Each structure stands twice: as structure tokens, then as C-alpha cells.
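Take our chain:
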Amino acid sequence: MGCCSGRCTLIFLCTFQLVTALERQVFDFLGYQWAPILATFVHIVMVILGLFRTIQYRPRYIVVYAVWAAVWVTWNVFIICFYLEVGGLLKDSELLTFNLSRHRSWWRERGPGCLREEPAARLGPPDGRALVPGDGCALEHSYVEALHSALQILVALVGFVCACYVVSIFTEEEDSFDFIGGFDPFPLYCVSENPPGLLSKQASFSPGEEGTAAPADH
């Protein structure tokens, strides 16, 4: 396959996915978003699996990557609905933190153009971290998170289609190779060939046989 093949495209997509997932994981850690942290960690493992198995021509593992890409799309759709408060979801709830902390998205206080407000002394949360959103944000944190998820959905959909294409190509190549006897332990061309030892034995016994058959003619 050339560099413009579906395999090389899938390798590039997996690499890009890995970079974007690591970037997202960093900001999820900064915001103590435990549910996205776990989901992104599994996503990173699956992307690495798909990347190396694509390099090694392993179509079965690429199928696993394609299935996970569909699951990843579903998860990011939920994240978009969560931050845009679709379907009764509330972005200020503690759903993504498993009710373990009062933290919210890191972009809530440090988004583009935000001016962070520190809470007054002795009036803040017990952990001493600001929970109030920043003022004057050029883009609210909910839209920043939604754009992150939208990017993940776009790349995952392209990766899903490309993975299905690569699996079909690998399967066709394996079928064609098996058809010509590539995986046959006893290829057809070996049937018509005589072992070298048998040929040498026939050559050594041929003069004796002619000598013993000569007196019978007399």
C-alpha cells in the first residue's frame, strides 16, 4: 500500500486522535472531572491499540477500534448535551465528578478572555478553590467543552469509516492470498515435484534392472 492508502490515513487519524485526547485529558485533570478522565483514558488505550495494530496489519484489532469509535461518539454526544443542558441535564451538577468534589470545568474560570474572581476570605469552599465563573469570557466554558467534544466526534467518525475501509482491504488481501495457496501447508505445485532422493535412487538402480532383464530375452 502506498502512502495515500487508507492504512496510512488511519495511522494519521489515530495519531491526531491521540494528541487531542492527551490535550483533553490534561484539562479534565485540572478540572477534576473524574468521569471524563476515565473515559478519555480508555479512549487513549483504544487509540494506541488501533494505531499499532494498523501498522502490524491486524484487522481484528482494528474492528475493536472501530467499535470503540462508535462508543466514543456516543459519549461525546452526551458531553455536549450535558454542557448545553439538553434533555434536563444541568451543567452545574456534580455528575461528572461523581459527587466527590465541587469542581467544575477548568474552562469555567480560565476560558478565553475570562477575568477570574477569587472568593472572599473565609467565604469560599472548604478546599480553598474558586468555584465562581470568570467574568467577561469571550466564550463560555460550556461552549468550549462542546467544541472539544464536537472535534472528537468528527475525528472519531472519520476514523470509523477509515477503519472499516482498511479492514475490508485487509480481508480481501487475505482471501486472495489464501486462494492461490498462500496458507495451504501442502501447496499444489509440490505434488508434481519428485524428491531429489527418489530421483537419485531411480538413477542408481536403473542400470542393474536393465542388466537382469537382458538374459530373459535370450
